[in-house]
Amino acid sequence: MKFIPVLLLLALVACGQQKDKKQEGFPLKKTEAEWKKQLTPEQYHVLREKGTETAFTGKYWDNHEAGIYYCAACNQELFGSETKFESGTGWPSFYQPVREGVVAVGTDTSYGMVRDEVVCSQCGGHLGHVFDDGPKPTGLRYCLNSVSLKFEKKPAKK
Ligand SMILES: [Zn+2]
Question: How far is the CA of 79 from the centre of ligand 1 (A)?
């Protein structure tokens, strides 16, 4: 019966190494333990484990207020409300990030699909996916998780 804990341990070590590798290349580096401490379980699942919130359940898919969406993990400014559009998917959708370089796109082959994964360029946190069926002018649809974002209302103009 001794081999079971050993196997478990090996699996844990292997997973740990994989995660460390993925963190390379992002300016903000934290250990998984640090992220776990900082983020809620839901945020950790989406941002660090590439989870997806259930459609129409997030805070922001139906948010129409003017303001800025920040990374929930590191506060980098990511998307503005003026590029948000009604995608009908139940996830907050944008056609363009607030400026170039704030998000990075990689290939995600999970669930038997090939999708373009969108991550925060500063902390590497998983935000969602980008598809090429969005509106003009970019034709892109950044389909994001509310959990990965933090919205701040624009102060009303006087
Ligand atoms: Zn971030």
Answer: 12
